[in-house]
Every structure is written in C-alpha cells, then in structure tokens.
Amino acid sequence: MALIQNKLVVWDWNGTLVDDSFVFVDIMNSFLSSYSLKTISLKNYRDYFCFPVKKYYSSLGFQLTEEEFETLSINFIKQYKKKMFKPLLKTNILSVLNYIESSGCSQIIISAQEQGLLNKSIAHYGLKKYFSKALGLTNNLAVSKAALAKKAVSPFIKKGGKVLFVGDTLHDLEVARFVGASCCLVSWGHNSVRRFSNKKADVVFSVSDLSSFIKNFIMY
Fold it and tell me: Residue 142 and residue 214: Cα distance in Å, rounded?
C-alpha cells in the first residue's frame, strides 16, 4: 500500500484504547462513600463524566474548595496507580492499530492523562511502536486537552492534512471541532451514547465498525 502522508489519526487513551471505565467508577465510589454521598454505577458514571473533571465532581454532589479538589485529585492518582494496569485493551483494537500502521498513515495519542502515567501505560500494553508521539497533560487535574491538540495538529491541518480524532467523550468531539478535524466517537468508553445523540457526531458501536470508518478515512 502506498505511503499516506496527508492523513493523521489521533487517538484518545482512557476508555478508547484501554477498557478502563470500571477503574474510575471504583475510585470515585470510594471518594463518594468517604463524603457520605451516593455511590454510582457504571451507567451513572458514563452519564455524568465530563471535562473539566471538577465539574463532574460537582455533578455528583461534591462541594469542594480548589484546595480540596486538588487534594482529591492527588488521592485519585494514588489510587489509580494501584489499578491502572488491571484493565485490558479494548478487544480487537490491535487489528485497527495494525491496519493504520500498515497503511502508512500516521497515528498519535492525545490524552487528558498526565504525561508520565500515559507513557507508562503505553509501554505496559506494548503499543509504543504504533504512535509517532503520545501527548498528555503536565498535571493530574484533567482540565482539557484542547491546547495540546491545537499545538500538535493545527500546523498539519494548515498544510492541507486531514485529521481524524477517535475518542469516547464529548470532550473529544469538542477538541476535534476546535482544531478543525473530523471525529469518530466510540460507544464503549467513558460517556454514554445518549449524550452524543444531538451532537451530529459519527458514532461506532463495535471495533469492526471503527475499522471500517478508519479505512474509509484513510482511503478517501
């Protein structure tokens, strides 16, 4: 297959490539219990989770000062580090990564995860070879990855390149539109499909459908 130099696939990490929503639910429920707040199910989580994450905390009943939020964020990362390698990669997602690699199309990761944790995760799952770069945030507050995306992707788009973001949250859609890229949202991640319904977004419900979507993007 001919080398494809004018196409770029930008992957989200948590919930898109790695099937880790349950870890975030477990940790949040420990926080909710400690504050005598109602715990959540996976469905609740996917209905409420959003960026910036502080807004998500508020939606669950937390009333936190900035200092309290930062303390909880630090505690979250401590808990996350203990569980971050328990999830599996999304079933059959490697076949998609292999197809993109074999096509000659570039692929990168842009994540709201802290850079060091992102690097460790990619190494643990043996995925480093697939990505020309992996970009995470410089802190653990999970505010937004829009600035990262703009810096990494906008020059490529300005030169006529075509970019596809693959993610699992409304934030991924917002970031893609912010930089002028296309977006494909997956149904298995950190946001429920119901939240995508009025956003005129492309949504796939299986890895097979995602593969077909990406093949269409690369070839046309």
Answer: 27
